[in-house]
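User: I'm preparing a small set of examples for a lab meeting where we compare how different chains pack in three dimensions. I only have the primary sequence for this one, and I'd like the structure in token form so I can line it up with the others. Please keep the answer compact; I'll paste it straight into my notes.
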Amino acid sequence: MFYNAWYELRYRYAGTGIGIFWNVISPLLEIIIYTVVFSLLIPNKMEGNYYPLYLVIALLPWRGFTETIVQGSDAFSKNAIYLRRLAIPSEIFVGKVTLASLFLVYIYLGLIILITPLFGKGLGWNILLLPVIGLLFQGLSFGMSLALANLQILFPDIKQILQFIIPLWSWTMPIYYPSSIIPDRFLPWLYANPPYAFLKSFRDLVLEDKIPELNIWLIIIGWIAFFVWFGATINEKLQSEVRDKI
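Assistant: Understood. Below is the structure token output for the 246-residue chain.
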């Protein structure tokens, strides 16, 4: 399973000159663009000299999360031949995509740990919780992807809808901009956006050297439990229709 997941990650950029390294180069180019726009062209309104680090800590895990959503929602289509011929649990294919993206998330977290001291920020022992939050974040994406993988077989337009929704989704949370520009009365509502508690936890651990509070852990576990239950329920109810459609 681990080998298949690693192969899945390498296969995503098969045929390109630098292959798997596009997983790192692509988000780094995006970070440079946003740093120039927000930190240099619009100075003193963001996170100052820490803006690039502020951006990296949320954007890289977000990229790993959305990579799971995009690839996982297409997992049944790409593995249709196996689903037609073999009596194996379909969720295995979404699990393989999720595990491959988990490797990617851990690469991203390693980069965050390496570059943080370059900005003059010290790292405390709380940084050891980063892989735990990363694993939980992928648990959320697994539940979402499992539901979407079934629905995409029955409603193929979901693939195109996701291409529009995901970039828009990223602007509904303070990934590129600080939460300080959001009025205080609206801040609690950010937790109604499932990925937000995870992204805030990444920043708390790195920027504040602070373990997420109990209520944040409860929100994280609650969102994971809901979407894993939702994905499993959709998978169970639609399996026969999905296998007939493939």
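A couple of notes for your slides: The chain has one domain: 2-245. The mean pLDDT is 84.

User: Perfect, thanks.
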